[in-house]
Amino acid sequence: MKREKGLLPVESTAGSIMNEEVLGRVLDVTRETANELKEDFNVYMIDTSSGETKNSPRKTAERVADIVLSLIEEQLQEDILCLSKNKVVKWFKGRTTVQAEDASELSKMFRKSGNYRPREEVEANLQLVQALPVVVVRNKSGEILRLRRRERSAEKSLHEKLVIWAGGHVRKEDAKNGDSLVHSALRELQEELRLSLEADDLKLLGAVYADAEGSIGKHAAIVYEWRAETDDVAVALSASEFFERRGTSLSGKFVDLSTLATDIDANKVSEVWSVEIVRELLAKGSHEFKDQGLFSLM
């Protein structure tokens, strides 16, 4: 075979490396290495062989860009709303859950007496409590969106836990246009569930605070509810995997109150806020639950 100067002969179209067997082994080694290093590095796996990224360079690039932007955002200083723990504990008076009227007063106290500090500083200070607005999402029939959380680290207390709320910290920029807690809740719904709502769409249900060790004692949940005007939202949300830039919502499904009550009694749903929201804000006084004998431990 005559060779042109500077060119190598091509023995086959597949070559000795670019074939399924070799590429499969390379992929296996890559996955094993990523798994070994996941505790030391942020490792992100993007499957371009299935889902929305399959045969879509644009979707793949968008996913990569979203991850990179998220990492950059984490490095920027984030000022979040907090309040003295002594004030929060004194205000709750030993209660874990309060109804809407009292929750409204707590919200006012956070807005009036609270202040914004760097998140790292607040997280490290056990004498500060962070305001954390959360939203219970329901369809027209009243079914509740039950989410499985995903955290960046498996050591996080909420990793893989079932919850019935979506929400996050109140940032300084949330205070620019009215009620900072409400705007925080709206922003988190957009980021986590791609729901674009207005302030009037949210209904205040109550507040939850557990004065306990660990991260739960650092946050006070201000609980809102949004109810869709149709049941079709159940199909739209439960048929797809939720995606959020920070990666906190993994998957979800709409279930009725009876199912949630059973899940709580079976310890399938054990996250404190979710349990308190169901027992004290959504199902309290319900004859159905009394007849079934659920929540017998309370």
- The total count of helices amounts to 10
Order of helices and strands: HHEHEHEHEEEEHEEHEHHH
Q: Summarize model confidence as the mean pLDDT.
A: 82
Q: Could you say what the CATH topology of the largest domain is called?
A: Nucleoside Triphosphate Pyrophosphohydrolase
Number of domains: 2
The CATH architecture designation of the largest domain is: Alpha-Beta Complex
Low-confidence stretches: 235-249, 291-298
Helical residues, percent: 25-40%
Structure, described:
Mean pLDDT is 82; it is low at 235-249 and 291-298. It is built from 10 helices and 10 strands. The strands form 2 sheets. Strands 1, 2, 3, 4, 7, 8 and 9 form a 7-stranded mixed beta sheet that branches. Strands 6-5-10 form a 3-stranded antiparallel beta sheet. It is globular. The protein is of the alpha+beta class and 298 residues long. Helix 8 crosses helix 9. It folds into 2 domains: 20-75, no CATH class; 79-292, Nucleoside Triphosphate Pyrophosphohydrolase (Alpha-Beta Complex).
List the helices and strands and how they pair.
Elements: H1 20-37, H2 57-75, E1 79-84, H3 85-92, E2 97-99, H4 100-113, E3 115-118, H5 119-124, E4 128-138, E5 144-149, E6 162-163, E7 166-167, H6 180-193, E8 203-208, E9 219-227, H7 232-238, E10 249-255, H8 257-265, H9 272-282, H10 287-292
Parallel strand pairs: 4-9
Antiparallel strand pairs: 1-3, 1-4, 2-8, 4-7, 5-6, 5-10, 8-9
Describe the structure concisely for a colleague.
With 298 residues, the chain is an alpha+beta fold. Helix content is 38%, strand content 19%.
